[in-house]
């Protein structure tokens, strides 16, 4: 991306949209909203006329992605491009037999983590789902794990049982719970901490953690690296390496 080019990047997840506008490597605006709130994003609309491009990472349904694409065209005046997974980029090799089956957010997070850190990595993204991806020091994606995120774990217990009804609340501990609510909340976080520790130890890898609940995991694992903008930084890397394979225009 040239120093005078201004680009808006969107990370469209399962429950929210995270975005930022960049001029060169400098972030000039950023925000977060639910897809249903798209029409009211005045701070985005005010960027019209200043933007040269829009790039999107989307793991939400096709309808949500199309809403963002139409917003880019009609409200921002730029033609959007969607990132997609390829077999290899910047020395990172996808571990899936069919790269298109890997979530693009996981791919972009791995691209960003590997660009920032060296050696073997475990890249963790804690949102609605919790994803863990292992990368060798040579850049081979060894595969990964997908679990429910903290809120989905709580909701699954509430839906599947009559007695375990726990209201959503922040969780900061993994000590044994002394009531049912604490046992559920602490247990959910403890499960993610245990997997992160196990993978880091087994693969002798640095933990790199992003996503909305990243700070909760990092508080329990002081040696991990909190990387807040992994997916957005991965979008910037993909765009800098833009080709017909890793970026596509949606018509």
TrEMBL record:
Localization per Swiss-Prot or TrEMBL: Cytoplasm
GO molecular function, one term: metal ion binding
Main localization (coarse): cytoplasm
Pfam families xref list: Pan_kinase (PF03309)
Cofactor note: A monovalent cation. Ammonium or potassium.
The reaction(s) this protein catalyses: (R)-pantothenate + ATP = (R)-4'-phosphopantothenate + ADP + H(+)
Residues at the catalytic site: 105 (proton acceptor)
Annotated GO CC locations: cytoplasm
Subunit description: Homodimer.
Family: Belongs to the type III pantothenate kinase family.
UniProt-recorded name of the protein: Type III pantothenate kinase
């Amino acid at each position: 991306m040239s120093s005078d080019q201004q680009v808006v990047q969107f990370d469209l997840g399962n429950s929210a949209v995270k975005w930022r506008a960049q001029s060169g490597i400098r972030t000039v605006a950023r925000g977060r909203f639910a897809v249903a709130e798209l029409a009211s994003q005045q701070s985005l609309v005010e960027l019209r006329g200043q933007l040269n491009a829009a790039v999107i990472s989307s793991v939400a349904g096709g309808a949500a992605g199309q809403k963002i694409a139409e917003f880019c065209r009609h409200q921002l005046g730029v033609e959007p491009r969607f990132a997609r997974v390829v077999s290899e980029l910047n020395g990172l090799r996808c571990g899936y037999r069919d790269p298109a089956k890997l979530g693009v957010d996981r791919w972009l997070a791995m691209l960003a983590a590997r660009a920032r850190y060296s050696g073997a990595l475990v890249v963790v993204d804690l949102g609605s789902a919790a994803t863990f991806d292992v990368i060798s020091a040579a850049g081979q994606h060894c595969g990964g794990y997908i679990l429910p995120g903290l809120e989905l774990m709580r909701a699954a217990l509430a839906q599947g049982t009559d007695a375990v009804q726990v209201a959503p609340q922040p969780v900061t501990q993994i000590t044994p719970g002394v009531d049912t609510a604490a046992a559920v909340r602490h247990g959910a976080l403890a499960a993610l901490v245990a997997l992160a520790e196990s993978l880091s130890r087994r693969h002798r890898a640095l933990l790199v953690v992003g996503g909305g609940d990243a700070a909760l995991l990092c508080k329990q694992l002081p040696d991990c690296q909190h990387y807040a903008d992994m997916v957005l930084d991965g979008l910037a890397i993909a765009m800098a390496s833009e080709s017909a394979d890793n970026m596509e225009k949606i018509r």
